[in-house]
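Researcher: Quick test of sequence recovery. Tokens follow.
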């Protein structure tokens, strides 16, 4: 691995671990797989709730005789009503079949067609939302979800849950249905100071919003609806590897762990530890977004083993270089002399 050794005076981007600016001090990673996503599940109703587009079989009987029973097949319209012969429209969306039976019976009595009817409501077919789930999920595909449970959490669950490389952000693209298709106002909307949601309205017939799963799960007060024909895209994380070199046993590139923290000592451990007992000076070379020159952070291994603040967190693309010093050069010289004189094991 080709790395420029750093020596001499400090440059403008050279800092010590304990006194580096806050902008360079990384925070612990958030892991969406550990977030309580159940707090984001839809509260619009269970699987037995009648929804728009459901087809029902409704039987109305005036007495116990089969001859007095009238059975019909009815579809619940987009406005939530089912129109029954003679009785007229009855709002059934959002209620369970037992409650629908009571509503229909009440309307039948009110309209004077029955005195004390017996009403039975059952499902012939359920309207389902077809939702495509892609990205960092275990089983990306298209799934059918009941409209009352068609939300981000249910879509991810249908796809087998989050994959190991899942990021925090999920983008939802819904058909742009105008005002009638707008999702309900949720806590954490873009107008709030600490938003967990950002929304856009592109001109391609779809509207989208992005949810940060970790922040939204902590808030736990929002429902993120996925409409029929919607797409749920779970962010994939593919962080750049960490390079470890210098006085280590196995200098190489190592995969940056997803959802876990990696420190200077952890990276050196991945590389088999130091190959010189006097090794202490470590340079962390960190790329900067707005600068062609990286930041260089100097860490002391001895201090890092005693103080957590010295054992700094690493980020994707960091280079960890265990530097030669006068002490390490002296140690290597002693080992070479000892080996050359006696052919035995090193002094240390």
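Model:
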């Amino acid at each position: 691995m080709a790395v420029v050794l750093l020596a001499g005076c400090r440059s403008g981007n050279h800092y010590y671990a304990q006194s580096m600016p806050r902008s360079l001090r990384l925070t612990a990673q958030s892991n969406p797989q550990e977030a309580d996503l159940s707090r984001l599940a839809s509260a619009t109703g269970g699987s037995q709730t009648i929804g728009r587009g459901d087809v029902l079989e409704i039987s109305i009987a005036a007495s116990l005789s089969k001859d007095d029973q009238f059975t019909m097949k009815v579809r619940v319209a987009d406005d939530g009503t089912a129109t029954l012969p003679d009785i007229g429209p009855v709002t059934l969306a959002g209620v369970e079949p037992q409650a629908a039976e009571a509503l229909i019976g009440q309307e039948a009595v009110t309209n004077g067609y029955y005195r004390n009817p017996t009403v039975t409501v059952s499902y012939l077919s359920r309207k389902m939302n077809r939702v495509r789930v892609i990205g960092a999920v275990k089983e990306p595909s298209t799934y059918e979800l009941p409209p009352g449970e068609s939300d981000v959490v249910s879509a991810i669950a249908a796809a087998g849950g989050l994959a190991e490389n899942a990021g925090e952000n999920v983008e939802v693209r819904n058909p742009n249905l105008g005002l009638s298709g707008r999702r309900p106002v949720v806590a954490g909307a873009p107008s709030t100071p600490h938003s967990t949601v950002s929304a856009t309205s592109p001109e391609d017939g779809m509207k989208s919003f992005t949810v940060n799963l970790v922040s939204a799960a902590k808030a736990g007060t929002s429902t993120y609806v996925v409409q029929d024909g919607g797409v749920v895209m779970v962010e994939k994380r593919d962080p750049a590897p960490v390079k470890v070199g210098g006085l280590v046993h196995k200098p190489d590139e190592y995969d940056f762990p997803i959802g876990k923290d990696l420190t200077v000592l952890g990276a050196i451990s991945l590389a088999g530890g130091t190959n010189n007992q006097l090794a202490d000076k470590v340079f962390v070379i960190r790329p900067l977004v707005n600068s062609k020159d990286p930041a260089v952070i100097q860490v002391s291994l001895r201090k890092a083993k005693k103080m957590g603040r010295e054992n700094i967190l690493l980020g994707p693309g960091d280079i960890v270089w265990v530097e030669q010093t006068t002490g390490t050069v002296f140690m290597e010289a002693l080992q070479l002399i000892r080996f050359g004189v006696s052919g035995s094991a090193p002094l240390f």
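The domain at 41-46+128-236 is CATH 3.10.560.10 (Outer membrane lipoprotein wza fold like).
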